[in-house]
Amino acid sequence: MKNTCFFFLVSCIFITMNAQNLTTYVNPFVGTKNMGHTFPGATAPFGMVQLSPETNQVPYAIDGKYNPETYRYCSGYQYNDKTIFGFSHTHFSGVGHSDLGDFLVMPTTGKLNLEPGEIGKPKSGYHSQFSKNTEKASPGFYEVFLDDYGVKAELTTSERVGFHRYTFPKSSESHVILDLMSNIYNYDSKNVWTFVRVEDNQTVVGYRETTGWARTKKVFFAMKFSKPFKKYGRKRYEKVEYNGFYRKFNENENFPEFAGRQIRAYFDFDTEKDEQILVKFALSNTSTNGALKNLENEIPHWNFDQVRKETKQKWEKELVKIQVETLNEKDKTTFYTALYHTMMSPILYEDVDGKYLGLDQNIHESKGFTNYSIFSLWDTYRALHPLFNFIQPKRNNDFVHSMMAHYDQSVHKALPIWSHYANENWCMIGYHSVSVIADAIVKGTTDIDVNRALTASKNSSNLKYYDGIEYYLKYGYVPEDKSGSSVSKTLEYAYDDWAIAQIAKKAGEKSSENEYLKRSENYVNVYNAKSGFMHPKLSDGTFKTEFDPMDTHGQGFIEGNAFNYGLYVPQNISHMIEMMGGKNKFSKHLDEIFTTEIADKYIEKNEDITRDGIIGNYVHGNEPGHHIPYLYNWTNDAWKTQERVRMIMRKMYTPDADGLCGNDDAGQMSAWYVFSALGFYPVLPGSDDYAIGSPLVKSAKINLENGKILNIKTENQSEENVYVKKVMLNGKVVKNNTLKHSELVKGGELVFVMGGRR
């Protein structure tokens, strides 16, 4: 009987998916105008492989100086470019800094050219021009026509395998180039070593090790062609001072193994008109055998269209978890594109047999969980992981276990800060794994041992040599003269302390709960009643005299200023408001943030902040202020939250190619939209509460993993009726502008009654 019920449930899901066809409402080209773009290529939900075009190859530095253009290409792609250099297999989804871009593959015809060439100089290298009207993308699929070679390129993927289909013209000089030098954020010393073996005339394996944002990143591959190549070779670009007795051989042509630091390889074919050559390219972080196993397990055949269909179905299965009706079709595309973006990372980071490379650079095997990587936690703890706890709780449980595995393998005995590919890159501030873990524990979505989680969290919070924690523990704040970005650090640490207190409460550790609740009050130590702002304080206990609350640099903040980042006390908003002068004064302060234009001089030095993401002095294009529109709920003017939230959704998100106002930051920007469009937002991750906003959808059906369904309905919804007159959950009126996660996941009906300005 159980199997019958399961079959019926699965059948119903797929019937619903087919009826909805929600992938048609996703635009993979949506990204940012000037900053790091999300990649438009093919990937499965949370897949290890992100197979996508590179539209330029930009050096990290020119004449020893940082090249600002690298920021625009942190995902390898810019929508307005008309040149493609090839298709690489690993990407970040708009995180504002970068790495990856591994294993670039490019089909060409004619005389072999292994130089990439320069953008804007057609035929200066192996890159190709293309017309935008031949470029197509949908979840799990990408297509483009390479004008210089008459080759149609199509891409799809499984979780661990990229699948290429190239349709060639008739030629006796058809090539597939494998560029093992190409990187994103490229510089001469980034490639540490490359090794390749040609196993037979269709199979190639190897690995590449790079050093960059991930200091020690090693990725293995297995590459298989649908047709035997007639010859192959490589060119090695670095100066070789010693080559041992390999000097006996001509390693450049048809020699079955090659190694070096800077290598490009090629594989030659004869092709007939419209002949298709397919390439399967599997990744592994453990070994070439692991890559081969991944390839044979996930795509054992050569049916490209079948894989494309299967990956589309995987996306439909994820997207159908939230089914919305909107005021117009554009809103529907914006919503499902945002939902799609929330599932680009974290990425699967283990082979089909559960083996993965750990932080200690040893091979481990996941037991009882699936291992993931790419945790951009300073961004994603705010809304992305809370969204996972709502619609992806089982997967978020895997994320929590992955963080704990990181802790177990850490020589610092610390939870991840910003981790990817078996590396900790220590980017940004705080130790926000504790927020993700606390949120999962409080909401009951993880089976992690609470006492073990508490130990890991406490150890992370007391790692004295990490980013000012020594001083935070000594002074109760981070002094600006001891560690920069001191106010931001103090506020984030205080919030993390509160999150640890929630874990301690669940563990029944009263002394630890009290200790960390006390630590969570440290925000008061950087509030200056005289200036009226959170204000950098020095180690002698005095506040910094030269202080501009509009500025970021040298003012105690990172990627924000005192106006916006200075309001980060989610664990005790009521006290913060009282401290800052009371509800009416605080409401006016929020108004000032939205209405005071920030001068160019305050943002021109910060790559992460541009005019596209700013309303007055409110910076939606960056994460520290994402909770700010909801803070009116704690004043006497909750209607302003509704007005501001609706305005932000309208102004900062569109279904167009420049539809994001800032880096998507691994899904955080999009998660804000998904929550806000549904009508509520997790201002305080680690609690059971959501703050009510202004829903943009007409209705939503949320298929929860526990089998329950939450139906969201709006009455009198329109462009003008942005104000919430009443909220009812299962017939009961909701008070205090707050919804409870524990009540929403029981399912039922959530009704928003909308109206005009009162």
Query: How would you characterize the largest beta sheet?
Result: 9 strands, antiparallel
Distance between the termini: 55 Å
The CATH homologous superfamily of the largest domain corresponds to: GH92 mannosidase domain
Low-confidence stretches: 1-19
Based on secondary structure, the structural category is alpha+beta
> What's the CATH C level of the largest domain?
Alpha Beta
Continuous helix count: 18
Total number of beta strands: 40
Question: What is the percentage of strand-forming residues?
Answer: 15-25%
Radius of gyration (CA) equals 26 Å
Please name the CATH topology of the largest domain.
GH92 mannosidase fold
The shape, in one word, is globular
